[in-house]
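Sample entry (333 residues):
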Amino acid sequence: MATRTLIERQHHSLALMVAAFAAVYLIWGSTYLAIRFAIETIPPFLMAGSRFVVAGTILYWISRAMGGGRPVRSDWRTAALLGAMMFLGGNGGVVWAEQRVPSGLTALLIATEPLWICLIDWMMPGGLRPNWRVAVGLLIGFAASALLVAPGKASGGVDPAGAAVLLIATLSWACGSMFSRHAKLPKSPLMAAGMQMVCGGLLLFVVGSASGEWSGFRISDVSARSLLALAYLTSFGAIVAFTSYSWLLKVTTPAKASTYAYVNPVIAVILGWALAGEPLSIRTGFATVTIVVAVLMINSHRAPSHEHEQVNDVAFGGMDDEPSYAGCEAPHV
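Predicted structure, serialized as tokens:
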């Protein structure tokens, strides 16, 4: 009887882990396409702002219900700074750029965030100098990115302004991830995430208002597809996938949990091609494989002393949401 119970528990745990990995892989990989659908009829900054204010508020109160303490004023100051770097600068850049850049290519360019993390870490006083494998990964990754954005008929070319904004967005997200490693934040990752989402969402509202997004915007003009995409991004992208990732960090290693970073860009490219008719050229396919390999080389050869910091880099998944544990890599998005 005891053996049967143990087997049932193992099967139950395995099923939960498979479901959690599927959520992180598929949901965070699909958020780039969902953003494209959402901003078809909703102004980008207002869309992102509403998404994160709602999701952040829900995560905040979930954390409070689970016993999380009330944050102090200094926690909110840190959350506002991280929200500015990761949600306004990071996700805000993504949603603006997707007006000009296909969702699959956006995901590929954002996937280079670990490359920037590595460079920033190296340039900081006392930073970690990359070994030869990491250096090769950096060269490969940046070369693939340059190939991706280079003008040419093979891939239709990438809008220069969109590519530039994505570069800034990735750097902003990387700086936020680095800062989050040393920032003093609430112990609960749900609380920290919720506070940063709320602060970032409010800042996105401010930028959207200042840029005139309210002018001429009418709820009646919003399509059903955009509304569904916004609901999906808020509920699944910012809440379900993040909580699944948080659970995975507790039951498996950070290295295994962070494998979403290699899967999400591939899923985003395939979904953009299959559901939105985005071009899938030989150059795009080559860049996809190359960037994934580069990120794998960098992440798999970090110094053991930095392992705890990698948790911060990937906790949110892709900049879209695609969210550091103390800040948000997701992306993800």
